[in-house]
Amino acid sequence: MEYFEEINSFWGIYITNIGEAKDNEVTIKISQAINGDLIPKEYSIRFESYASYAVINEIYTNTDSNDYEEWVGRLFCIYSKSNYLDYIRKDANAEGYHNFERQLKHYAFYCLNHIVHVATFNEPVITKN
């Protein structure tokens, strides 16, 4: 996925905007956290559809080690197995609603001040601003 490694190479990221432009579409805008007078790199991550998304204040994050969850990434993570996916599968019946050939995925953005979780069947479209 384009920009995945680049975003994960930063020491931190901020959410600058999150919103729904159309029904069942969410766009998350993030910015590189920097020190000094440098101009931060900015990205738009658009999910063309989603089963669920949540924004959590970072102070409520569970920092306990979790051997159950499986993911790749550090700031921008892609989970194949997570507590959030289990919750959405149980609470929203998302996989029952969609065709079973597609797998629900969990994307997470670990930003300074916020954490954003998105459960979706589609890979996001990422553009660098």
Walkthrough of the structure:
- It contains three helices and nine strands, in the order H-E-E-E-E-E-E-H-H-E-E-E.
- It is mainly β and 129 residues long.
- The protein has one domain (4-128).
- The strands form two sheets. Strands 4-8-7-6-5 form a five-stranded antiparallel beta sheet. The protein has a four-stranded antiparallel beta sheet with strand order 1-2-3-9, with no helix packed on it.
- The longest helix has 10 residues, at 83-92.
- The chain is globular and about 45 Å long.
Concise overview:
This protein is mainly beta.
Any chance you could write out the topology, listing elements then pairs?
Elements lengths: L3 H5 L4 E7 L6 E7 L9 E6 L4 E6 L12 E3 L3 E6 L1 H10 L1 H4 L7 E6 L3 E7 L4 E4 L1
Antiparallel strand pairs: 1-2, 2-3, 3-9, 4-8, 5-6, 6-7, 7-8
